[in-house]
Amino acid sequence: MYRLWYPAALTLAVGVSALTVWPFIRNKSLGDQYVQELSTYIRTQLPIDAPVAVYGIGEIAFASQHPIAIPEALPVLERFHL
Predict the structure, then answer these.
(1) pLDDT over 90 for what percent of the chain?
(2) 3-state DSSP assignment of residue 9
(3) 71, 53 in Cβ contact below 8 A?
(4) Where are the alpha helices (DSSP H) in 1-82?
(5) Which of 20, 56, 68, 73 is deepest in the core (most CB within 10 A)?
(6) Cα-to-chain-centroid distance, residue 17
(7) In total, how many domains does the chain have?
(8) Tens-digit pLDDT profile for residues 63-77
């Protein structure tokens, strides 16, 4: 009996896992696409001395090769007119 139920339960578990995980994978893919589009826009459309502040600086700064300011630092930068 165990040999009959085990493959069925395993197949069901894999199916449920795939259906559950698919939206998360899709959202991650879309998020990466949006970050890449933003990085391309920053790299091609903004002057190198234009200030840019974003919440997630790592990936955008790397992909755009543009100096990125940390949002918490903006009040300090504005005080010194940088």
Answers:
(1) 22
(2) helix
(3) yes
(4) 2-45, 57-64, 74-79
(5) 68
(6) 23
(7) 1
(8) 888 877 666 666 766
* pLDDT (0 to 100) of residue 54: 76
Q: State which amino acid sits at residue 9.
A: A
Q: Which two tokens stand for residue 42?
A: 């920053």
For helices 2-45 and 57-64, the axis angle rounded to 10 degrees is 60
What is the percentage of the chain residues whose pLDDT exceeds 70? 85
pTM of the model: 0.60
Facing residues of 53 across strands?
69
In this predicted model, what pLDDT tens digit does every residue of 23-48 receive, in sequence order? 899 999 998 999 899 889 988 998 88
Exposed/middle/buried for 64, CB within 10 Å: 0-12, 13-18, 19+? buried
Tokens of 17: 């896992």
Which residue bears the tokens 């998020």? 31
Range of the domain at 18: 2-79
